[in-house]
């Protein structure tokens, strides 16, 4: 069951400048940064709020690490902006299978590693009314 907004993914050309915008404008501080080579991104997670199920909600600021990454391709076409939304669930495997059974393309056979040791998968935006949608089971150690 999808129980919360885990994060909103925002693509940017310059992560440091974008982090500074969110800090100076809204007072949001960086909770975590990492490079995910598989996804081709350098990212900063800004925690917005805790949630009632023990997870949290974040903004995920994304800068591409290589030209052939999905985010680099998207930025070249669209410029900066909202790239995807992510729903939190305790069971990404079960929810992905259930959604696949409804005829929505799930991009990975098995969930992969996301921010802070989470397990993630994506639904194709063309099957979701134009919204690239991520499912996330967070790692309880974070
Ligand atoms: N939101 C909405 N639509 C999108 C999109 C997005 N983020 N990315 C691509 N599309 C649309 C394109 O506009 C295009 O539509 P048209 O044919 O109407 O022009 C269509 O989908 C195909 O796009 P494309 O540019 O040819 O891109 P690809 O098919 O190569 O890749 C996708 C699209 C969704 C398969 C790819 O972006 C993907 O695998 N995404 C999941 C992984 C990811 O996004 N990782 C980065 C974030 C990591 C994280 O969150 O931790
Ligand atoms: Co994401």
Automatic annotation (TrEMBL):
<comment type="similarity">
    <text>Belongs to the methylmalonyl-CoA epimerase family.</text>
</comment>
<dbReference type="GO" id="GO:0004493">
    <property type="term" value="F:methylmalonyl-CoA epimerase activity"/>
</dbReference>
<feature type="domain" description="VOC">
    <location>
        <begin position="4"/>
        <end position="138"/>
    </location>
</feature>
<protein>
    <submittedName>
        <fullName>Methylmalonyl-CoA epimerase</fullName>
    </submittedName>
</protein>
<dbReference type="InterPro" id="IPR017515">
    <property type="entry name" value="MeMalonyl-CoA_epimerase"/>
</dbReference>
<dbReference type="InterPro" id="IPR029068">
    <property type="entry name" value="Glyas_Bleomycin-R_OHBP_Dase"/>
</dbReference>
<dbReference type="InterPro" id="IPR037523">
    <property type="entry name" value="VOC_core"/>
</dbReference>
<dbReference type="GO" id="GO:0046872">
    <property type="term" value="F:metal ion binding"/>
</dbReference>
<keyword id="KW-0479">Metal-binding</keyword>
<dbReference type="InterPro" id="IPR051785">
    <property type="entry name" value="MMCE/EMCE_epimerase"/>
</dbReference>
<dbReference type="Pfam" id="PF13669">
    <property type="entry name" value="Glyoxalase_4"/>
</dbReference>
<dbReference type="GO" id="GO:0046491">
    <property type="term" value="P:L-methylmalonyl-CoA metabolic process"/>
</dbReference>
């Amino acid at each position: 069951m999808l129980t919360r907004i885990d994060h909103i993914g925002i693509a940017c050309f310059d992560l440091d400048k974008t982090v500074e915008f969110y800090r100076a404008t809204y007072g949001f501080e960086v909770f975590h940064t990492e490079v995910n080579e598989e996804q081709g991104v350098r990212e900063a997670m800004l925690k917005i709020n805790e949630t009632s199920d023990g997870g949290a909600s974040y903004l995920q600021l994304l800068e591409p690490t290589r030209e052939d990454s999905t985010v680099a391709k998207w930025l070249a076409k669209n410029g900066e902006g909202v790239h995807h939304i992510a729903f939190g669930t305790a069971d990404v495997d079960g929810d992905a299978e259930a959604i696949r059974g409804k005829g929505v393309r799930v991009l990975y056979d098995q969930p992969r590693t996301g921010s802070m040791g989470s397990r993630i998968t994506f639904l194709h935006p063309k099957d979701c009314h134009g919204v690239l949608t991520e499912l996330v089971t967070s790692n309880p150690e974070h």
